[in-house]
Design a protein that fits this description.
The protein has 88 residues and is mainly alpha-helical. It contains five helices and four strands. α2 crosses α3.
């Protein structure tokens, strides 16, 4: 099994061969501690950008073919002088 397949399998909690928004949220939530709303937005954005068949889920192929959906996740804060770019 390739590294990509192994990592995909870890995300695919229900073993249906797809990554849903709900399966992606906990990963993003770990990156953005105490920012659950932001994590949900990022999960929705990543899936909408990479989900080429528009079924609301990601396959391994969609994730590999659309890495920009994950690398381009940047959050700028108006209140503070920092930004998140955890996927770069």
């Amino acid at each position: 099994m390739t590294i990509a397949k192994e990592r995909f399998a870890k995300l695919d909690k229900d073993n249906d061969g797809f990554i849903s928004e709900h399966e992606l949220e906990p990963v993003l939530d770990k990156l953005h501690l105490s920012e659950r709303y932001y994590a949900r937005q990022q999960a929705t954005h990543a899936i909408s950008e990479a989900d080429k068949d528009h079924d609301g889920r990601l396959t391994l192929e969609e994730m590999i073919e659309n890495p920009y959906a994950f690398y381009g996740s940047v959050y700028f804060s108006d209140d503070e002088d920092y930004f998140h770019e955890e996927f770069r």
